[in-house]
Amino acid sequence: MAVIGMILAILLFILGLAGTVLPVLPGAPLIWLGMLVYGLFTGFAKLTVGFYVWQGVAVVVTVLIDYAATAYGTKRYGGSSAAIYGSIAGLLIGPFILGPLGFVIGPFAGALLGELVKGKRAEAAFRAAFGTLIGIVGGTLLKFAVEIGMIVWFFWVLLS
What we know:
- By secondary structure, the chain is mostly helical.
- Helices cover about 85% and strands about 0% of the residues.
- Helix 1 runs antiparallel to helix 2 (about 25-40) and helix 2 (about 25-40) packs parallel to helix 6.
- About 40% of the residues are buried.
């Protein structure tokens, strides 16, 4: 049964890592689910409650990275709070309007609109919106690093 659990876990890990760049898949939650599936197949022989709790914290961190990195990039490139709120609104609304592409275009458009509504010139608004894109890319890289760390920790525990 452990072999089946490991195969399913690895498949979920792959899907989770793909979800880091394909926004239709919940990246870190799928990785955590893979660990849970493995635990269920092995009777939680080596994976403790504390392990799952800390892995859950890592999942929450990846979700926070999405919002914080977007906001940081926006602010770093001169965006005001209107651009930050606009980018977050775009991150939440964009996917419903544009599908997966909305995860990129939504925050950009939200930041741009937020700055334009606030009365900033187009050049400054575009700069803030560009910062949003930089934040998204940086956030994606950070999330990927956390997710790799989750997977490495999983195998570290199993092999120790």
